[in-house]
Write a structure and sequence with these properties.
Chain lengths: ~260, ~350
Amino acid sequence: MSDAAAVETMELEDYLARGGVLTSPLNVPARYRGELMRLMAAFVDSELAGSAGFADVINDAPGIKQRIAAARIVLEKADHAERVLDIMAEFGADRGRYAVHQPWGARIARDADIGPTRHGNDMRLSVFHYPLDGWTDAVVMNVLMGLATGVQLEELSNVSYAPLAEVFRAIAPIEARHAELGLEGLARIVETAEGRGQARESVSYWRPRVAATFGLAGSGRFETLRRFGLRHTPNGDLRAKWAFRLADELARAGLA
Amino acid sequence: MARFHPLEVTEVRRDTRDAVVVSLRPRDEDRAAFDFIQGQYLTFRREFDGEELRRSYSICAGKDDGVLRVGIKRVDGGAFSTWANENLEPGIVLEAMPPMGRFFTALDPSSEKHYLGFAGGSGITPVLSIIKTVLAREPASEFTLVYANRQISSIMFREELEDLKNLYLGRFSVLHILETEAQEIDLFTGRIDADKMNRLFDTWIDPTTIDTAFICGPEPMMLTIAESLRAHGVTDDRIKFELFASGQPGRAKRPAVSREAANRSGTARATITLDGATRTVDMPKEGQTLLEAALEHDLDAPFACKAGVCSTCRAKVLDGEVEMAVNHALEDYEVRQGYVLTCQCTPVTDTLVISYDQ
């Protein structure tokens, strides 16, 4: 890095639109900074809220393997939140205060309907405001949201802020493993008729709520994010990709 | 919160006509904090005319050089780099934050890797740090450097690179590309463009052997090289970038503050700019933050924690005065420049001009 390019430079938007990347807080313009921070906060808050929600489920696990799987998800999601929060801290965020500024375990009523909008004073995806209802429900939510996270991380692994893209690339396989753990748990649950029935109910509860996390089609903010290279694929396309993968997995589990 | 530490200048070596190489010594108690990773940079701060400027310069020393050293190239109109080139001498104390940056890969003494580095001008500084460290700590790895400059006299670290070639015979090679000086092979003359990259990969560098590529230079060069690397099968996760900080403003301007008599009751008229569009809103002086007023008027202002700890909602006050209830995220120098956390601000003056775009 150096004070400035001795050779030619180009307009930043042009650079970003052509796939250029930024690499440090000092070469990030103000509006880009705001959207980058918002994107990171949404991820950190969602991971912390997701981890907190799963913490309660550990004691519902029907066996040691499942208990380990749930505990691992709680641990690793908190770790992923920390890795992104570390980047926010390089922009000035107060790491210590941020980590406790919201009650991450707080949930709204199970039958409330808040749609895709943010709620309360944190940036977690709306789906993380709903409470889990026992082991089977937690496994199903983890499968649906795990697949969604996979799709989102594929998108986010190409964000134009290189240090963040690297963190997302490192996190993606671990998050994918969380979804696999969910699928393994689901395979056991659907071995019984009762389990299948419960799982079906949970699928119909979580499916629209997870779908809502992809945001609105034709969102104005998407255009801003696309200009900055912080997003590339429209919300609707990502949701369709998720729906396709989900249908595939549900068919495999006999829940189609 | 990032903290600044004193670094004493121990040596200043003129490298080219407009670049100096500066050796620095931290205090004993700060030694651990400045134990850098190859490819990282230091952020310095200094006051110019009562105003704080911050600039980042990459470390050019290798891990085993036993010294902290940065390269500073003078830039026309650049306050810090000009000052550093003209005034630095042993004994002067600078203030810097501990090393930052992720322009590196983890090293393993048993690796047999082929690294490819692209540097444009003073973009060589972090790449030199990587080259030295990799060659010393991965005895079976190789490094190829493609180094673009305007002319021979502007090549930074020219002798040092020659020495490295001799020291690591067969493991380190350099291809110099000079913009304005003709060379025997015409591939090595002119600017790096897509065609040059193709020919480089056709005849000089086998792209299938590359484990990791490092690129540091100005924006157009980064794009051209990254596009070509991808086209030749080097995936994004194997390309490391460090961008020149050309976006850094030469000098930050103080906000013009109009000193109206403070009147804490009634309403204020706030003019808010976001994404180039400006809107004027009337808001109460108490009970509503600037962020809330912006959101209420359908401005898609960025925010996250609403608790003054994350700084997502940062904006700049261009005129007027606000009161900030809580600030755990902005540093003093940002506040002096007029930056505020809009989630924590209420108007003090009757009129207010703020921008999220600056």
